[in-house]
Amino acid sequence: MLANERSVTLTVIGVLSDKGLGGASGGNYLVTDIANAQAILGLVPSGETPGRLSRIELKVPESAMSSVRKKLDQTLPEYLQAARPEQRSQQVENMLRSYQYNLTILSFIALLVGMFLIYNTMSITVLRRRPEIGTMRALGVSKKQIFSLFTVESLTLGLIGSVLGLVLGVVLAQGAVQAVSVTVENLYTGQGVSGLSVNSTTLWMVLVFGVGTTLIGGFIPVLEATSVPPAQATRAASYERRVQGVSARLTLAGLLSLVVAGAAAMLPAVNGFPVFGFVAAFFVILGMTFILPSIVDRLLLWMKHPLKALFQQEGQLSALNLRGALGRTSIAVASLMIGIAMMVSLAVMIGSFRNTVEAWVFQTFKADLWVEPASSANSRITSRLSRPVLDDIKRVPGVEATDPFLDLSITYQGEPTNLAIGNFHVFSQYGSVTFLDGESKDSVMQRVIGLIETEQPGVLVTEPFAARFGVQKGDAFVLETPNGTLNATIEGIYYDYTSDLGYVTMPREVYERYFEDTSVTGLAVYVSPTQNASGVREAIMSAVGNDARLAIRTNQELRTEILTIFDNTFAITYALHFIAIVVAVLSVMNALFAVVMESRRDYGILKYIGSSTRQITRMVLVQAGMIGLMGNLVGLAVGLLLSLLLVFVINKQSFGWTIQLSLPWLFLAQSFVLVMITAILSGIIPARMAAKTIAPQVIRAE
């Protein structure tokens, strides 16, 4: 096995079962005696026999728990804490909360898009059976019975779809776990997800959501089926006239929703979670959905003449036909709008975040080489560089300066965060960092260096740390240590995107004085300008000998690795908005089916007066393109609004990072074209259906 920078050979004397300790972390454990572990991991300081421990676990009868806790609180020094295992579990839950909730919200948006698809599906069902409904109502069947008939049908479809969704979801989760595991390991817990855990409570909850969404999505079409009088049931567009009649009230409701969204965006986070940011996003989507019938109506009116110029009479008839089915058209545009808005907002947020991180990486990571024990790839908590290796590296020709750093996980005010230790003298000369208030790096560093030997030294904190704990420059930083209370002053807050848990950065001299720990997790190496970094890396490997197992990366390799981790972090979100777009395009197809069915009489008449099959096909394809165009335009506008919420409200309140907004124009242009092509293709089947309309049958029915 790898222990720090050494290779160690051990003998397996037994294999644990998957129960108890053997089942922890998916069974990814080696167990040995404490003294043996301390020797292997270098946790026995020079001259000290007992060595170091990370924690002590106590088995206490529940009846004695209260008295033992009280005694421990009285006995333990301030820098140690006694806590039950569930408290540690709660800390981990708190760390993962924002990431988990954000994924959940994105899933709900995908589900919301699906609800429009359900609406269109039930609308088609009602349309096809409208004559039957009229006949049944004329024969005395009550509204309640009609409502029950369609509700049971919705319930059955929802149950079948949800069960199939559960099965498919568990299968897809296998791949999703791998994507999420990388993020959890790199940013939060230091260890990956051991495997897929299928919780029965979650499955039942998902089933309820699936069936519930189906019932909600189908409610309006079912209600429309029961409310149409028998004599009116066979007339076309009765529902559409009702939509046109309430469009003004819907527009007013939409404007009020946008006002609510603006007010919610101004409110602070609740316990570190951007509740009102997501409320604002919901009301933006709701408001634009309400306003959409008016927008679509005016767009179709404006597009009528350009379409006639481009596609002759078919273009003009297409616009008029969609205006005649305004409710159906608006729903199709709304579903496409939400899918595109989700895609655009995430693309803008992720692109802006990536550009910000990339600029930060190039500005901050100045060392030419980064040295870590090879074991740190899977064990950052315990991996350390030994003193002999550090000394060997310092003596290598071409090494101008080195900065031994230490990266630790600590608890501050009951919450997990990180502590970084470095040589401020070296960093002030070679390193780079940007402070929120614009103060120069040299000024802050010299001030912190001047305070190292004082009773109240200075520390630096990252922007996420400041946001999480509500601290500002000049505030006190108090931490209990093995050598008493460390009373420090926050001398600067700097931009950092390493961890949303935040970092406190402390001079090594201060840390060693209070913690009596000289360990090092990594080494930043600054190479002489006359030397080549790759050549110095080879010299370092030669100097430390073949027995040392080191991971030495150049500046460029480290930057590439950081951006790779970033891309892996957001891989799952790309999958979510891809699903939303697919469902939205299906909704367009469904809407066109409904429009074609409602327009059968029109197509029949057009055939009687001489329209060809090609012309009718062209009409439906133009309609598909118009729905795609309107969905694209409105979706882009809504997506940009949502991206502002994601960048400046939701992301800021969730993770504490400042992101510089940038628009991925090429991606947006490519997506626009792709959605247009897909929307037009989705109209092929409805177009064929319209073209096959048999005129005599339609006219005879009329």
Can I get a quick summary?
Helix content is 63%, strand content 10%. The chain has 22 helices and 11 strands.
Helix content: 55-70%
> What is the approximate shape?
elongated
> Which class do the helix and strand fractions yield?
alpha+beta
Task: Please summarize the sheet with the most strands.
Answer: 9 strands, mixed
Number of helices: 22
Q: Gyration radius, to the nearest Å?
A: 32 Å
- Give the low-confidence spans: none
Strands, total number: 11
List the helices and strands and how they pair.
Blueprint: E1 2-3, E2 6-7, H1 34-41, H2 65-75, H3 85-128, H4 130-138, H5 143-189, H6 200-227, H7 238-265, H8 275-324, H9 326-364, E3 369-373, H10 387-394, E4 399-412, E5 415-422, H11 424-430, H12 441-450, E6 458-462, H13 463-469, E7 476-481, E8 484-494, E9 503-507, H14 508-515, E10 522-527, H15 533-544, E11 550-554, H16 555-569, H17 571-598, H18 600-608, H19 613-655, H20 665-682, H21 684-691, H22 695-701
Parallel strand pairs: 5-9, 6-8
Antiparallel strand pairs: 1-2, 3-10, 3-11, 4-5, 4-10, 6-9, 7-8
Describe the fold and architecture.
With 702 residues, the chain is an alpha+beta fold. The protein has 22 helices and 11 strands. The strands form 2 sheets. It has a 9-stranded mixed sheet, with helices on both faces. Strands 1-2 form a two-stranded antiparallel sheet. The longest helix has 50 residues.
Descriptive key words:
alpha+beta; 10% strand; elongated; two-stranded antiparallel ribbon; nine-stranded mixed beta sheet; 702 residues
